[in-house]
Amino acid sequence: VFNAETAELLSHHQVEIKQEFPREGWVEQDPMEILNSVYECMERTCEKMNELNIDISNIRAIGVTNQRETTVVWDKTTGEPLYNAIVWLDLRTQSTVERLLKRIPGKNKTFSKFKTGLPLSTYFSAVKLRWLLDNVEEIKKAVEDGRAMFGTVDSWLIWVCISGKNGGVHCTDVTNASRTMLFNIHSLEWDPELCKFFEIPMEILPSVRSSSEIYGLMKICPSRESGALTGVPISGCLGDQHAALVGQMCFRDGQAKNTYGTGCFLLCNTGQKSVFSEHGLITTIAYKMGKDKPVFYALEGSVAIAGAVVRWLRDNLGIAKTSQEVEKLAAEVGTSYGCYFVPAFSGLYAPYWEPSARG
């Protein structure tokens, strides 16, 4: 929670979410755990604000940001997820991508580049959704029965937090939609031809809104006694990397930010025109700050593994006991004698887009 006038951080809370690795290259999260962590963070943050004697009734708006591309399908009648969320860096869709490539003349990975800004890759949501429709009987059945809803994590959270099965709002924003491979980044609509290519029924897709408008009001969570933010409008939604671009106030053409989390992402604002790279960068929507406001674009260089390699050094190799120790170890080494380790645990993203590359 921050002060809207000064941008001063007033209070925060965070919870680490468990990643599950059911098989090599598979990465999943439990959508209910994500949801509960959000509730817990909101309640604990509000408790901390009370301790600081800050009146939580001054909270005017809630914003949602999420790891992009992570794919959730849920049942709108029960409100329950139909499968774990498939996380953005999951590689199970490699065979799906290869199968789809065979249907494209010349196996051209960039066949939809001028519509979506993206190459055909395991990274984006459409192939994850295709895998779910091909491999999870329950999802197939829910789609046939008209019960299934697809979304990235922002859609799942907004739907549940606004009313869930009692009339939740099924929406996403332009930044998250632009990471699905199903969205035309110029017309700002789901693309019927691409949906047909991936064989994805358009009725399960969320409506697409701007990144800044009122989607609905926060409802009390049925499983908890209190709902500190009940009635506060949810009025902001941006994929995490776009939120970082906005948070660093890169509003001018040519301004860029780089963030280091699980992965590493360089986004450069290209203003109101979409720029297409000849060098393996992707074109994405940066933000759209209101229904009637113009859309801004960005070029992005995506690296799948950055902070995750630190976690791997700590948890898998046992080279360091804490993440902080890695910096100290790196600083002690004078030279690597020309030896480098490329952590291609989820293949390589920009500029190669090669899912079969390994560390």
Short description:
Pfam families: FGGY_C, FGGY_N. The protein is of the alpha+beta class and 359 residues long. It contains 11 helices and 15 strands.
Please tell me the CATH architecture of the largest domain by its name: 2-Layer Sandwich
- Straight-line distance between termini: 39 Å
Count the beta strands.
15
- Highest-level CATH class of the largest domain: Alpha Beta
Please state roughly what percent of the residues sit in beta strands, choosing from under 5%, 5-15%, 15-25%, 25-35%, 35-45% or over 45%.
Answer: 15-25%
Compute the number of helices. Answer: 11
- Describe the main β-sheet briefly: 4 strands, antiparallel
CATH fold call of the largest domain = Nucleotidyltransferase, domain 5
Mean of residue pLDDT values:
93
**What is the CATH homologous superfamily assignment of the largest domain?**
ATPase, nucleotide binding domain
Give the overall form: globular
The low-confidence parts are none
Structural class: alpha+beta
What would you report as the Rg, rounded to the nearest angstrom? 21 Å
Helix percentage range: 25-40%
Order of helices and strands: EHEEEHHHHEHEHEEHEEEHEEEEHH
Q: What number of domains?
A: 2
